User: Which sequence fits this backbone?
């Protein structure tokens, strides 16, 4: 549960940072390997999750709910 809380705290901090500009971004990594990047757009109040794969390709997903993106990041970091 503490890892979920840590992710949620980082996302809330990202929202605060975005108030000063149009967007803010943050990386999540495991053992120094970037697993994903989250960008928060304050104008639309949307999160964009970019998931990196081992083959160099990435996939992007949109979220309007902080709880849902927190769970997605948590699941991604568990694999």
Assistant:
């Amino acid at each position: 549960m503490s890892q979920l809380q840590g992710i949620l705290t980082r996302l809330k901090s990202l929202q605060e940072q975005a108030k000063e500009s149009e967007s803010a971004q943050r990386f999540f990594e495991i053992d120094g390997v970037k697993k994903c990047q989250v960008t928060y757009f304050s104008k639309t109040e949307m999160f964009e999750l970019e998931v990196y794969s081992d083959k160099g390709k990435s996939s992007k997903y949109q979220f309007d709910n902080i709880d849902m993106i927190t769970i997605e990041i948590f699941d991604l970091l568990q694999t």
Q: What stands out?
A: The mean pLDDT is 93.
